[in-house]
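Z., the sequence and structure:
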Amino acid sequence: MILYRPVGTAELKLIEQSGFKQFPPRLPEQPIFYPVLNEKYAAEIAEKWNVKSTDDRRGYVTRFEVEDKYISRFEVQTVGRSYHQELWVPAEELGEFNSHIIGRIEVIADFADR
């Protein structure tokens, strides 16, 4: 399954340090890792949230693939409009999630406060 993740610069640097192979551990105040199911929703978050809430006023959209059999264990959550769909991965399971990523995490969009 192809998934998307909106990130800020700090998280993107940690992804880069992993060789674009994994997402960094969640912070204590972040109990869930939530990849989203479509690029439109990911771009909306990156542009409207990451750009406004990060020190450098930048947001990015990443795209990556996860093994279908593994990802099917997570229920799709619709959290707003019909396309606001995401998966909720408990923070303590992120290491296992990362081990099921196929290939590399790629940056497909870049937003800045202009």
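The chain has one domain: 2-112. The first strand starts at residue 2 and ends at 7.

Let me know what you think.
H.
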